Amino acid sequence: MAEAVEVNRARLLEGLPHGFLGRRGGVSTGEVAGLNVGLGSGDEPAAVAENRCRAAAAVLPGAPLVSVYQVHSPDCVVLGADMWRDADRPHADALVTDRPGVLIGVVTADCAPVLLADREAGIVGAAHAGWKGAVGGVTDSTIAQMISLGAQRARIVAAVGPCIARHSYEVDEAFRDRFLAENGVNARFFVEGRERHWQFDLELYVAARLEAAGIAGVERLGLDTYSAPERFYSYRRATHRAEPAYGRQISLIAVG
Fold this sequence. Notes:
The chain is an alpha+beta fold. It has helices at 45-59, 131-136, 138-149, 173-182, 202-212, 235-240, and strands spanning 7-8, 18-21, 65-67, 76-78, 94-97, 103-108, 112-118, 123-129, 157-160, 170-172, 190-192, 197-200, 217-220, 249-253.
């Protein structure tokens, strides 16, 4: 029997079509075995296409799936009529929409996926927050674009999905210094590790950025991509294992 697609859901987004997916339930093989949805992963295009269809069907059957061409930026776009084909994806790391019945999504492989919603306004967002995009303000840009469509900051809730956890994310002093230069209070997201190295809490940092934006609520799922190879893809794990390729998982949301 084929393995079912695993969908991790957030309490704050309950009732909305959404899900943080992993690698279970797909058709890809080899190093990227499972539900690899990365269009640029080097996987067989037919397998990626099938996996993306399975992912969408697990969250909102029959809905089209729209994503962006991610570049580790702070940029967010509003879903437009010219974005429906994969070849037309704009370069950005977040997107928002008020169109019912359309799944929007971001792919990750250690970076933090963030799903946001203002239920009352019928507006949702999805953001890819790697460390560059996170410190650059990708979540702030996503909230701003949602507000431009009619959302209200005090009604927006957000959930941070599977990403690399602090105990799995070693960084050097230069990395830490970038965050301290942005704001000295960022020291709280780092725990001292081996000599001249630190453990960075990406999930907590992203959640703190969301909370500082003044939205109604933030939820952290607490799922580590690095330490669960049977459930999630991880760029850092693949690098440490000298694997030739790595897959990407997807996080999806739609207006209810």
